[in-house]
Each structure stands twice: as C-alpha cells, then as structure tokens.
C-alpha cells in the first residue's frame, strides 16, 4: 500500500489518538515507533498493531506527540532535543498555549508544527483506538512563521495518509474556533446531562433522541476536559458569557410570557438556532438542505440490512441514518436523511415494499 511518509514515525502517547494514528499508519505500511510513560499502555497499543515499541537508536522522520494538554509543551520540547533531525507535531486540542510555552522554553520551533484532528470518541485509551478514526475528518494545521514549508509538509503527509482533510489555521484562530464547535458544546452537554442525575425514573423512561443527542458527549473524561478548558479559558469564557446573556433573556421572556415582546424573544431564539444549524456543513462539506423519513423497524436480525438494501434498490442516496428505541418496545424507528427531491419516491417505494413510514 502506498503512502506519502518516507521514514519512521514516532508516536509519544498511546491513548485514543496516538493508538489510532499508529493503527492507521501501520495499516498503510509506515513504520511506527511507540512510546508512552506507561509501559502497560505502550505494550497494549503494540499488541493491537499500532506499531512496535521504540528502541534506543531509532531515528524517526516525524514525531507525533499525543499526550494531555498540560504536559504537551514539555514533551514536545524533550522530543525536539532528543531527535534534532525530526519534525515534531502534537495533536492537543489547544494550539496557542503549547507554542507560547515552547518559545519560553527556548525550544527549536523551526521543527515544530502543531496540529489537531477534529475526531474522537467518548471512550479513551488504546482499546478505543481505530485506524479509520480520521477518515474524512478535518485536521487543523496551526501554522506559524518559524517553520519552513518543506518541514511542515511532513505533517500534511501524515494527515493525508490517514485519510483526513488538512485545514490551515493560526493557533489563535484554531482556539477561537474550537471554543465554539467543541469546548462550549461539551460544557452545555455536561450541564444538561447533570439535570438528569436527580430526574425521576418516570421522566428518564420518556427520553428520546433529543436529549440523547444533546448529552452524548457528556460521557467524556472530566480530567482531560479540565486541562482542555483551562488551556483555552479566554475563548471559552467569551462564548459562555454571550450564551449566558441569551439564556437570561430567554428565562425572563418565559417567566413573563404574556408580557409584550416575550413570545417574539422566544421565537427569535428558536429561529436563530435554525439559522445556526443550517450553516453546519453536511456530507462532503456541502451546505445542502436535507429532509428525513422515519420508518418503523422490528427488533429482529436482518431487518436493518433489508431496509438499507431496499433504499438502495429504490435508487435513493442515503445521506445519514440513525436508530431510536423506546424502552420496552420490540421495535425501533430508523430516521433516514435524504435530499428533498428523493423524499416522495422513497416514501412510495418503502410503502410498496411493506415498510411502515411513520413520518
């Protein structure tokens, strides 16, 4: 299998991201050298096929540092010093702080280029690793003036070898962006999920797709997120204060719904949410509008496969799919996302084949 990277890649940190990078590169024939502060963690990643254990005398071409944010700069500096011919990148979710710390340490940042794959899971560790984790996902390259294009191209090669999409940015632009699309959503999800902790069992039995969507990332590791949020606090606080003002306005409107303008305040908040969602890129980065069809499906082996095959036979391109189950029910509802022009033909085809279209 062909690949762009020529020489060995050293990965420092064998958690979810480090192991996934190792798995992806190893599957493409790239030599991967693994190093972790925990001998158990690095051996586990090696056992899963993410690479071999690093050895004295290794001379990597590229080093990927995948350690927690609060030690990223220190580890990057150590790797730059230990391997003076290698280019070093890190995959921490904040970019301005590590670069500033490296400059304070006097590290050779002419061989350092920070990056950040916009991919992950709620689970952590080598056991959650996947070589396909980055396929089709954005991967930010946080450029700075001290590194040459030739050296930085190794990071491009890494990203492309893993099937990701390189996105150029500055460290400051990156941190402002992830505050909006990642860090604040994490906090909102956690705060909403916290409301469920003391909720009556009767209420939880009513939980559907809405609350599950909002709280999905609330299962993430608190220890890691404290570090991430601490490193990007100014940008996160800016967004939270704006949201705090919006929330206060909404609370006041709902608390006095019959007052003049209150209903408009609520409607404007909901409308603004519609506009924001509409701006999110869809499949292949497009802004195409989609519509949804909901189909009842029995909880029996082979039913989902049959439904997907029938959709293909109807010559309809499936944009997205998800399944929702009600507690105690022996059936579920499959929500199929398609282009609007496909809605009516798909509806008719599914009903002719005996499927119950519920919405």
Automatic annotation (TrEMBL):
EC code: 1.3.1.12
Name of the top EC class for this enzyme: oxidoreductase
Highest taxon above the source species: Bacteria
Reactions listed under catalytic activity: prephenate + NAD(+) = 3-(4-hydroxyphenyl)pyruvate + CO2 + NADH
InterPro entries in the record: 6-PGluconate_DH-like_C_sf, ACT-like_dom_sf, ACT_dom, NAD(P)-bd_dom_sf, PDH_C, PDH_N, Preph/Arog_dehydrog, Prephen_DH
Name listed for the protein in its UniProt record: Prephenate dehydrogenase
UniProt KW keywords: Amino-acid biosynthesis, Aromatic amino acid biosynthesis, NAD, Oxidoreductase, Tyrosine biosynthesis
């Amino acid at each position: 299998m062909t690949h762009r990277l020529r020489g060995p890649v050293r990965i420092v940190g064998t958690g979810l991201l480090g192991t996934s990078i190792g798995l992806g590169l190893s599957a493409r024939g790239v030599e991967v050298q693994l190093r972790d502060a925990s001998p158990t963690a690095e051996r586990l990643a090696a056992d899963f096929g993410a690479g071999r254990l690093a050895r004295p005398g290794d001379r990597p071409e590229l080093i990927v540092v995948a350690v927690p944010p609060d030690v990223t700069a220190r580890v990057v500096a150590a790797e730059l010093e230990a391997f003076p011919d290698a280019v070093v990148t890190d995959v921490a979710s904040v970019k301005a702080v590590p670069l500033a710390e490296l400059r304070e340490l006097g590290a050779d940042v002419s061989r350092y280029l920070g990056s950040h794959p916009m991919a992950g899971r709620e689970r952590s560790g080598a056991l959650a690793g996947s070589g396909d984790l980055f396929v089709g996902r954005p991967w930010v390259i946080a450029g700075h003036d001290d590194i040459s294009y030739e050296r930085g191209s190794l990071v491009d090669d890494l990203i492309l070898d893993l099937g990701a999409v390189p996105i150029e940015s500055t460290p400051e632009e990156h941190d402002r962006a992830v505050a909006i699309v990642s860090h604040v959503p994490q906090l909102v999800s956690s705060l909403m999920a916290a409301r469920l902790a003391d909720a009556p069992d009767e209420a939880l039995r009513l939980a559907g797709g809405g609350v599950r969507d909002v709280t999905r990332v609330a299962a993430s590791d608190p220890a890691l997120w404290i570090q991430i949020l601490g490193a990007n606090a100014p940008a996160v606080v800016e967004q939270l204060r704006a949201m705090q003002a919006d929330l206060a306005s909404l609370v006041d409107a709902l608390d006095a719904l019959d007052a003049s303008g209150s209903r408009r305040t609520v409607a404007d908040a909901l409308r603004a949410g519609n506009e924001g969602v509409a701006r999110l890129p869809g499949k292949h980065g497009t802004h195409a509008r989609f519509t949804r069809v909901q189909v009842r499906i029995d909880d029996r082996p082979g039913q989902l496969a049959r439904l997907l095959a029938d959709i293909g036979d109807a010559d309809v391109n499936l944009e997205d799919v998800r399944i929702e189950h009600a507690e105690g029910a022996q059936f579920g509802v499959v929500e199929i996302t398609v282009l609007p022009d496909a809605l009516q033909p798909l509806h008719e085809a599914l009903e002719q084949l005996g499927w119950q279209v519920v919405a």
